[in-house]
Write a structure and sequence with these properties.
mainly beta, Immunoglobulin-like, 2 domains, 3 helices
């Protein structure tokens, strides 16, 4: 498989990249690059700096059987890097980014990597917004890359002439995503990929411009309260040794008040603990009757998404919440005073347009204190018909507790010239 390129990114960031005066693809759908000549320097554009990456990531670490050739067979290492591709000493190939190229004969070449966003995007769901011609579909696709090549006169491309003499061709592509619809709100855990890209032509140079969209709203604080002393906190412990159990390690430490708002990416596990404070009775059991999420600190606000219903994972959620048992071996003095569960981070979706909202999440839990004895069980069974727990609850032993703010991480896309990426990419990939 072969092709060639220039780069991209995704989220309230603009990345400007230069393409050679001929950028080609070497698989039957593009002609041959005869001679590489670096383009003349273009005037500097006023662009925003990309968001600061977290950890090191090498976009050129592509498995041999997933490599797509970039440029001609005889392209040199320097020429390969000039067009923002990778070279392993033998061949030039596309990296794990989004690459936009502008050919001299007036065609767009766009190569989208699955790992160009965090979490990874389903490249088979990426399409141009206008699909009025067979040429607008991807010309090739694997589980890792999707490749588009189409004339600038098709697929909804707009054209304009700028005062500086550039002719600008612009198009837009996006991905589809799965939406979960509930009675009081809708969510998604899939990456929503949007790319606005341009090719700018002058008499001396070719320029590929990639614009990132989808801003994140500013953070707002939130406080938790309840009639009885109940606290909801989020675990942040890490596995540091071989054989470590991640679910156990996660609850070994917790975010402090100063850490909020905390940021999570789509599908990243969120480790929730609710605990009863100020009680020393081993016969007291804390139960979670109902846990749900909203986009504001107000537990009654809409939209809402259920996480636990009657103490059990919400059955309409395709990514079932995991109940984490707190056993006597946990080392806690009163294990029955604790409840733990794990849900995967999601984004609320507009109920009418089903468009993702880059928003914040607040978790709320309605809790109840149950006094167990030989005659009364406080168990919350989830695999058989639920017995009445209401009779086991004492008066005034209920409380509502809420988390502080959890914000959805910007949908981070990585342009071909960005060297870094969050290490969470592999960890939370499904």
């Amino acid at each position: 498989m072969a092709l060639s390129g220039c780069p991209f990114g995704v989220l309230v960031v603009i990345v400007v990249l230069l393409a050679g005066d001929v950028v080609m693809a070497q698989r039957q759908w593009l002609g041959t690059l005869n001679k590489y000549d670096p383009p003349a320097p273009l005037p500097k554009k006023n662009v925003k700096d990309p968001l600061a990456p977290v950890d090191h990531f090498d976009k050129c670490q592509v498995a041999h059987n997933e490599k797509i050739l970039c440029g001609t067979v005889d392209i040199t290492d320097q020429q390969c890097r000039e067009i923002n591709c990778c070279h392993d000493g033998r061949q030039c190939y596309y990296g794990k980014a989004v690459t936009v190229q502008c050919t001299k004969d007036g065609q767009f070449v766009v190569v989208v990597s699955r790992e160009s966003t965090l979490p990874p995007v389903d490249v088979n769901s990426v399409t141009l917004l206008e699909m009025n011609d067979v040429a607008c579909s991807s010309v090739d696709a694997t589980s890792t890359f999707a490749i588009f090549q189409f004339p600038m006169t098709l697929c909804g491309t707009t054209v304009k002439l700028e005062e500086d003499g550039y002719v600008v061709y612009e198009n837009h592509m996006s991905s589809s995503y799965e939406v979960g619809v509930g009675p009081r709100g809708s969510i998604t855990r899939d990456s929503h990929f949007e790319l606005l890209f341009q090719c700018r032509y002058s008499s001396t140079a070719v320029e590929a411009v990639i614009m990132e969209i989808n801003a994140l709203p500013p953070p707002v604080s939130v406080a938790a309260a309840g009639e009885i002393r109940v606290e909801l906190r989020l675990g942040n412990g890490k596995c540091l040794s071989k054989g470590c159990v991640e679910e156990e390690a996660a609850y070994s430490s917790f975010y402090a008040a100063a850490d909020y708002p905390i940021t999570k990416v789509l599908k990243e596990p969120v480790y929730v603990e609710v605990r009863l404070l100020g009680r020393a009775d081993p016969n007291v059991v804390l139960n979670l009757e109902h846990c749900w999420a909203t986009t504001t600190p107000n537990h009654q606000s809409l939209p809402q998404w259920d996480i636990l219903v009657d103490g059990c994972p919400y059955h309409e959620d395709g990514y079932k919440t995991t109940i984490v048992p707190v056993r006597g071996s946990s080392g806690l003095q009163y294990p029955t005073h604790y409840k733990r569960f794990i849900y995967q981070m999601f984004s609320f979706v507009d109920q009418n347009a089903f468009s993702p909202q880059k928003d914040r999440i607040f978790i709320h839990c309605a809790t109840a204190v149950c006094h167990q004895s030989s005659m009364r069980s406080c168990e919350q069974p989830c695999r058989r018909q639920r017995r009445s727990v209401a009779a086991a609850k004492s008066q005034n032993q209920e409380a509502l507790v809420s988390s502080k703010e959890v914000i959805l991480a910007p949908l981070k896309s990585f342009s071909a010239d960005e060297p870094n990426i969050s290490s969470a990419l592999k960890k939370w990939e499904r």
